[in-house]
Amino acid sequence: MKKIGGLGIGAILIGLFVVYGIYWYNSTVGMSEGVASTWANVESSYQRRNDLIPNIVATAQKYAEFEQETLTAVIEARSNATSINVDASDLTEENLAAFSKAQSSVSSGLGRLLATYENYPNLKANENFKELINELSRTENRINVERNRYNDAVGTYNVKVKRVPGVLFASILGFEPAAFYQADEGAEVAPDVKNLFGSN
Which alpha helices (DSSP H) does the chain contain, by range? Predict the structure, then answer.
């Protein structure tokens, strides 16, 4: 039986390293794409909220006595939020912080609108507005779910690129850890609309 020489063992080890490297690369690409996909779902949920706002504002504007300052604040916050986009290939803490700050301004504006809305019986009786607010509540809940899913995907991916030997492959192949979504304090709580409509 032939003995395997030093060169043979070295070749085997290199071969195993290459095979594992290919496996690691392919599985990490899949995780990276998973992070990008879940981030797209976060953005889609926020976009759904932004799409609802014009209808909410337009309905409220029909009531001449409704505070225009409140509506203007919501419109401006929405405009600012829609101007901030985060590329899935550049999910840094700074980029996500800017995105979160803009979205928190929208949440704050909507919170003021909902609080003001309580003082207008005619608007409260508007069935279209009720449905828009209910849809807003469902969208806020979806946003929270998608943010959590995104953070779960980031956690799994980051473990992959930070653990040994993955950290070695990551540095060679250019994989960077992704940033977690860290909303402003209290932003994870959807606006409380459950008591807005009495028994509805």
Answer: 6-61, 68-82, 93-117, 121-124, 127-162, 166-173
Q: What is the average pLDDT value for the chain, to the nearest integer?
A: 85
Give one DSSP letter per residue of 57-79, joined into a string: HHHHHTSTTS-HHHHHHHHHHHH
What predicted TM-score, i.e. pTM, was given to this entire model? 0.81
Q: What is the structure's pLDDT at 67?
A: 82
Query: pLDDT at residue 193 above 80?
Result: no
Cβ atoms of 29 and 172 within 8 Å: the answer is no
Span 40-67, average pLDDT: 89
The Cα–Cα gap between 15 and 4 comes to 15
Name which of 139, 143, 155 is nearest 193 in CA terms: 139
CA 7 – CA 170 distance, rounded (Å):
28
Q: Which two tokens stand for residue 180?
A: 């977690």
Cα 36 from Cα 41, distance rounded (Å):
9
Residue 111, amino acid: G
Long-range contacts of 68-71 (CB under 8 A, 24+ apart): 70/109, 70/112, 70/113, 70/116, 71/113
Cβ(113)–Cβ(74) below 8 Å: yes
Three-state secondary-structure class, residue 193: coil
